[in-house]
Amino acid sequence: MFARSLNKIFNQNPQKLTVYQLGNPALREVAKPIDDVHDREIQQLIDQMLVTLKDSNGVGLAAPQVGRSLQLVIVASHPNQRYPHAPQMEPTAMINPKIISRSGETEKGWEGCLSVPMIRGLVSRDRQIEVEYTDRHGDLKVTRLTDFVARIFQHEYDHLEGKVFLDRVENTLDLATEEEYQKLWQ
């Protein structure tokens, strides 16, 4: 599904973007709202982020990770090498997203990040959230996200607030290298 939905985009040859790494000050900025979702540059950025995400085997990406301090995230859960048990969903661009309710029921789970390569950490997140966002066509959406997809969204939403998942790790014992994490789950 992920690949099929990108066929049209790939035919337009969008450029893959560089993912900024931990330490780059752009990752610590609070992102600005997007005024015009129909702006050609915003639409191009969405396409470039989709290509970057697919090429990186990621399940989510926020605009600050590619050096754009804008309130835009892509959530694209799908099984891949980094997340073999991820549920399948259509890649979704979420513009000016907000969390409008939280379940209050939290769960710790392992997270990684394209901006923090080779490290995983256990992070507590709400298991269910309700979010509001504008889609790439300008339509206002409200949706309920659960479990892994809710985790992806909350992780990407943190990037819009200038945070990375390491800021939420409660104890350094909850960190592992990617190699050791993979051994745990084989």
Structure overview:
The protein has 186 residues and is of the alpha+beta class. The longest helix is centred in the first third of the chain and has 16 residues, at 40-55. The mean pLDDT is 92. It has helices spanning 2-11, 40-55, 147-160, 178-184; strands spanning 60-62, 72-75, 92-102, 106-113, 116-126, 128-134, 140-146, 175-177. Strands 1-2-3-6-7 form a 5-stranded antiparallel beta sheet. The protein has one domain (2-184): Alpha-Beta Complex (Peptide Deformylase). It is globular and about 45 Å long. Strand 6 (128-134) and strand 7 form a beta hairpin. Helix 1 crosses helix 2. It contains 4 helices and 8 strands.
